[in-house]
Amino acid sequence: MKKLIALSLLLAAFTSCSSSDTYEDIATPPPTGTPNPDPTVAFSYSKNAKAIIDANCISCHQNGRSASFRPLTTYAEVKAAVQNAGLLNRIQLQNDQQGIMPQGGRMSQANIDVIVKWNTDGLLEN
Predict the structure, then answer these.
(1) Exposed e or buried b per residue across 7-20, where buried means at least 16 C-beta atoms within 10 angstroms of its C-beta
(2) What gap in Å lies between CA 70 and CA 123, rounded to an integer?
(3) Contact 78/45 with Cβ under 8 angstroms?
(4) pTM of the model
């Protein structure tokens, strides 16, 4: 009985050490784009969105890759994908939904928020 109590206390201690509430919080990497600390300043492709696109999309969306029909290697290509190809909808799908991008699994919500804010701010280049 003492072993069971000790084991229970040990287990409780290990589970309470995490500052995260969900597995997704643990598994989700921090944003790869540069967040803008001042919400009154507009996000731009080169300063905020490009690093996220490069880290999450380029592996498939470039010449010679499986999604080369929709390259996302330049500002103009990414802007066109947001405006005409549903990029925002695709990146906001959940992991169990058909059409999610990237195909390997949903990127972090922080990264998605940067892309959405970039769109809201007018899809600025620099």
Answers:
(1) eeeeeeeeeeeeee
(2) 18
(3) yes
(4) 0.71
Residue in the structure block whose two tokens are 């069971």: 4
pLDDT by residue (tens digit) across 52-82? 999 999 999 999 999 999 999 999 999 999 9
Q: How many CA atoms lie within 13 A of 16 on its CB side?
A: 6
Look up tokens 């970039």; give the residue: 118
Task: Give the length of the chain.
Answer: 126
Residue type, 104: G
Yes or no: say if 83 and 115 are a contact pair by the CB < 8 Å rule: no
Beta-carbon count within 10 A of 102 CB: 16
